[in-house]
Amino acid sequence: MNHAPQPLQNAPLGPQAQYQAYLAQGRFMLQYSASSGQHLFYPRIAVPGSGATDLEWVPASGLGTLYAITLNHSRQGSYNIALVDLDEGPRMMSCLLGCETAAIGSRLQAEIVELQGQPAVAFRLLETAVQA
């Protein structure tokens, strides 16, 4: 696996800002530590537990499995909050697009969308994503 993405030009300083800059370019990236062999999310400056700082940005596969989901209701409407186990290992909080809920264990495909004026990673059911 090649872990050498193109570096950001004029990269922002912190890891969260770098992650957001990649999303703004349409790229879903994760941090990878060669010493631990782990992919990390959320963006950090060191590997939890070891403190290793050999983190580099690598493209995410965009695939994951639904771990948990809840449906929230508000005056503005309903929305879901999903926990997704990425195929690379980390778990991230996001939302499912195109449906209110789905079965735990459903396969998902990530896409970058704009939420509240910011680029963000959201997911679709894999069967839906393939047809779209």
List keywords for this structure.
132 residues, five-stranded antiparallel beta sheet, mainly beta, three-stranded antiparallel beta sheet
Describe this structure in words.
This protein is mostly beta strands and 132 residues long. The chain folds into 2 domains: 45 residues, no CATH class; 69 residues, Beta Barrel (OB fold (Dihydrolipoamide Acetyltransferase, E2P)), CATH 2.40.50. The chain has 2 helices and 8 strands. Strands 6-5-4-7-8 form a 5-stranded antiparallel sheet. Strands 2-1-3 form a 3-stranded antiparallel sheet. A hairpin with a 2-residue loop joins strand 4 and strand 5. The longest helix has 10 residues. The mean pLDDT is 90.
What is the gist of this entry?
This protein is mostly beta strands. The protein has 2 helices and 8 strands. It has a 5-stranded antiparallel beta sheet. It has a 3-stranded antiparallel beta sheet with strand order 2-1-3.
Largest pleated sheet: 5 strands, antiparallel
Residues in helix, %: 10-25%
Structural class: mainly beta
Q: Whole-Å distance between the termini?
A: 28 Å
Low-confidence stretches: none
The strands making up the biggest β-sheet line up spatially as: 6-5-4-7-8
E-strand count: 8
Radius of gyration: 16 Å
